[in-house]
Amino acid sequence: MLHSTFQKAFVRLSSFGALLMCSSLGLSNEPLNVAGAIAEVEPIQTTPTDWPWWRGLQHDGIASADQNPPVKWSDSENIIWSAPVPGRSHGSPIVVGDQVVLTAADHDRKLQSVLCFDRKTGKQIWETVVHEGGLDIKNNEKSSMASSSAACDGKRFFVNFLNGDSVFMTALDRNGKKIWQTKLTNYINHQGFGSSPLLYKDLVIGVSDNKGGGAVVAMNRATGEIVWKRDRPAKPNYSSPVIFNVAGKDQMFLIGCDLVTSLNPLTGETIWEVEGATTECVTTTVTDGKHIYTTGGYPKNHVSAVAADGSGKLIWENPTRSYVPSLLTRNGYLYAVMDAGIAMCWKSDTGEEVWKGRLNGTFSSSPVMVGDLIYASNEEGQTFVFKASTEKLEIVSTNQLGTSVFSTPVFCGNRMYQRIAVDKDGKRQEMLYCIGQ
Questions:
Q1: Does residue 229 contact residue 204 with C-beta atoms inside 8 Å?
Q2: Which domains does the chain have, with CATH numbers?
Q3: Residue from 82, 92, 25 nearest 55 by CA
Q4: pLDDT tens string 335-361
Q5: Rounded Cα–Cα distance for residues 374 and 280 (Å)
Q6: Is the pTM of this model over 0.85?
C-alpha cells in the first residue's frame, strides 16, 4: 500500500514516471492521461438539503434524520407538483440547490438526454441531448437505456450512458451545456447498464463491467481526461461503485464479477480483493464500519458480510434473494427488501435473522431510510412506509401513486421526489412527482 504522502505525489508525476508506476502497481496497461491528473479542481460542494448523487450524501440510502416528509399521499393528497418525463427510464432523480435533474431515454425521438426541473414549481428548465441514436439495444425487460442516476459536484452534472456499443461519461454545467465527454469502454450488452457516477476529490469515477471486459475509469472532473484506469473481468455486472472510510482509510468498493474488491480511489491501486460475490450484482454495497455486504441473484442468491479490514474474511452468508434493491444498515442492524416483497432485518455482525414480514408485489426500487422510517416502493406503484424496528415488521402506511415504479425515491427538504409511470389515455407516461406536506 502506498504511503499517504506518496499518494499525493503520485498523481503529479511526469508522464513517463506515471506509466512506470502504473505498471509496478499492476494497473491497466492503457496509457495514463496525466493532463487530467494535473488539473486542479475546486472541492465538491454539497449542502444538507441536497441529494446530489445515487443513494444520497453518505452513499448509503439514508436521508437526514431531521426531515419530516409525509407518510401518506395519493394522486390527490400531499402532491406539491408533478411534471411529465419523456420516454422510459429508471434512473433516480438528484436534487441540488433549486434544480431536480433526471436522465432520460426517449425511443420515439431516438435520444438520451438530461432533464432539469425547478425544485419549487416542477417547471422544466432545460433538456440537453447527450446522445442521438444508439438506443436499439435488446435489454432485460426491467432495464432501460437510462437506468443510472446523475451526480453533481456543485458546479457540474455527470451522467453515464450505454449508447450503441460503448459506455460514455458526460459532464454538463449547471445550465445544461456540455463540457466534455469521455468513452469508458466498449460494451457487450447482456441485460443493460445501470452503474452511476461516483465523485471523489478531483475525480469522477465510472464502472462499465460487461461480458467483453470492462473497466473502472477515473477522470478529472474539470476536463474529462483519464487519470487512472483498471481492467475488470469479462463478466456482466451492474453495480455502482461506492467509497466509504473503513479501517482508517478511504476505500472504493465494487461487488460482482465473482469478486469483492477494494481500491484506493485516488490511484486505482488494489487494497484487497477476494472471491465472495456472485457474478451479477445490481445493488450498491453498504457498510457498518467493519463489513461490506454483498447481495446477488445470479448464478446464486446470496446476502453476505465480508470483513473490510483487508483480511477479506467471509463473516456470514445466507441464500436470501436480494438481487436488485440495495440494503440499509444502521446501529448494528441490516435491513432489506427482497425482490419478491419480503422485508427482513438481520444483526449486521452475525447475520442472525431478527424478523421478516411480507409487504406486497415485486421490488426493483431500493428502500430509503428517513429517521426511524423506511420507504420502499414496489413495481406496481405502491410505497410502503414501515418502521426501522429491531423487533418486528411494523407497517405505518401503504400509498398508491401511478401504476409503475422502478426508480428509487429521494428525500430532502422535507419532500420526496419520485419518478413513476401513469396510464394516460391508454399509454404509459412517466412523471416526476414532488411529494410533501
A1: no
A2: 4-435 (2.130.10.10)
A3: 92
A4: 999 999 999 999 999 999 999 999 999
A5: 26
A6: yes
